[in-house]
Each structure stands twice: as structure tokens, then as C-alpha cells.
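REVIEWER CHECKLIST
Item 1: Sequence provided? yes
Item 2: Single chain? yes
Item 3: Sequence as submitted:
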Amino acid sequence: MAGLFEGKRVLITGGTGSLGQVLTRRLMTGSEGVPESVTVFSRDEAKQHYMRLDFMHQTSATDEVIFENSRQRLKFTIGDVRDYSSLARAVRDSDIVFGAAALKQVPSCEYFPWEASRTNIEGAANLVRAISEMDLRVETVVGISTDKACKPVNVMGMTKAIQERVLIEGNLQHPQTRFVCARYGNVLASRGSVVPLFLDQIAAGGPVTITTVDMTRFLLTLEDAVDTIFAAVRSAAPGDTYIPRCESARMTDLATHLIGDRKIETVVTGIRPGEKIHEILVSEEEATRTVYGEDGYFAVRPMLPELAAPVPEAAFVGEYSSANHLMSTAELADFLRRKVPEAIAQQPLA
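Item 4: Structure as written out by the authors:
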């Protein structure tokens, strides 16, 4: 049986980001079928240049086999999701689109809310518009969302929440394309996340900054995030939002583990603009239309009646908050050893 992406033309907006690079690498391995092409669409030519070098200059025999045809299959296009024309040119020959372009730093979005709106909302609207107005044969669009879009309190989450709704409504504008979303929590070791920050602070001799001692976050790796996105392509119905079942941890426990027995001070700095103490992946309002997928993921059904599907009463999952699924210190240590041993699992928890 052909793989999920066999012979497909795949477009990744924001493809030079941490997620985009791992997503590209997974696609290029052919583990889910060999795509005809993978196009990275972004506005940063320097990142594209270094990403191209990274993919072309592979040294191991296995990589030589995997990337042998990358000059033909892996493509790079300069453009911006805010610019309708450049996005329309990129998407017109695509079968599957992953919408990973985003302004995602919480404080930056607070200080530049209109810029966040242009990328996170207008970018999604441009994608739907291009597919609809040009009547394109795009099969699936997966919008990459965040736990901060659930009951949002910051600009980043608010714009991502509207992005979800813009893409879901796209199913009505162009029913021939399946628009779905993938929503997940804090990605370990991605650019701008808490783990690289803690590691940099530790390497500099401290202090390690903790915003509040009560703060919790969902944790998953970039590979887990890609697994969620692939599951959405495989199984999501039009308008679904796919969500992984994540573990969560206190940020103080994470800092303690990373510091280990080193004499490094921790300092409580207070919550940054727009931060939550606890994150939520499924709200109590969404819980009544959320089902357990057979593939181990939650699927939040759309609220639009034209897209809604019956939800069994037994499917009610309740609010899914990072405060309610906390790992013990021993469980956190085991989680980090399994998920990111090269970067994190160096010191025992106290």
C-alpha cells in the first residue's frame, strides 16, 4: 500500500523554523512514502541557504541514499504568507500544505500585536483565499497551532485561536480541500523554548530564571509534534483539531533536573507579558465535542453545524490542563532520558 505522502507535492510555509526543518527531514526520509517534492516557503534567505547546505552535505552512507535526489525533490521558495501573490504562486502546485509560518514568541506578540495578526491570521486567510479563488486541487491543509490558542490570554494565543477558526471555515469555502489543525504544547529544544534558555543560562554559570514556582507546561519533542501532524493528515475529518496526549511538568522541576548538583542559583522573575501559569490543550467548552481517536490522539470536532459530526456522550474528556497531568520528579527524569538524552538527561533529580 502506498505511503501517506507517496508521490505528493508538499508545501511547508515557515519551513525553516525548528518544526519545519524536522518536518522536512521526516518527509525526505520517505518513511511515510516518498513525496514527489517538498517545498520550503519562507521569507529568510539566510535560513534557507543554511538549511539547503545542511540537507545537501550529508556524509553517512544512509543519508546519501536518503538525500540522493534531494536536489530534485527538495525545493526552496522565498515568500511571505502575508503576501497573497507569493503564497498563491507557491501553493498552486501543491497536494498537501503544512502551515507552520508564525510569530510565536509570546512577549514579541504582546508588543507587536498587529504584526502577529498579519502573520498568524492574515497568513491563514491568504492560504484559504488562494486555494478557493484559484479552485486548486489541494487535498489537505494542516494548520500548526498551539496550546496557547485554547482559552487564550495573550496575543500569540488569540491570533492562533482565530487562525484555527479561519482554516476550519475554509472547509466551507472550498469543500474539495480538507482543512484541519494540529494543536500541541511546549516543544522541547525548539528555538525559543524554555529548555534551550535554561541550558544557555546554566552554561553561563547562572542564574536560571523561573517566572513563577507554580508554572507548568506540556512537554513533547519535535518528533512528537511531527507525529501529531502526520496523524492529522492520516485520520482527521474536515475541521478537526488534532491534539496529542502529553505529559506535563513544573518548570521548577525541569530547572532542578537540568542544573543537577551544580552550584547555580535560580531566581524568580515574575510572569512575562501574556504568560499563563498553566496551559490548556482542551477547554471545558471543547470537551463536549472532543473524541478519543483510535490512533491515540484527541480530535476536537468543529462547532460549525455544516461540519459537525455526532459525538458520543461517553467521549467527554473534560478540561485537559497542564496542571492536571504532572509528572513526578522521577517520571520527569525518565521522560527526559528517553526523549532528549543528548541534551538533558545528564544529572539526577535532587
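Item 5: Key structural point noted by reviewer: DSSP finds 13 helices and 16 strands in the chain.
Item 6: Recommendation: ____
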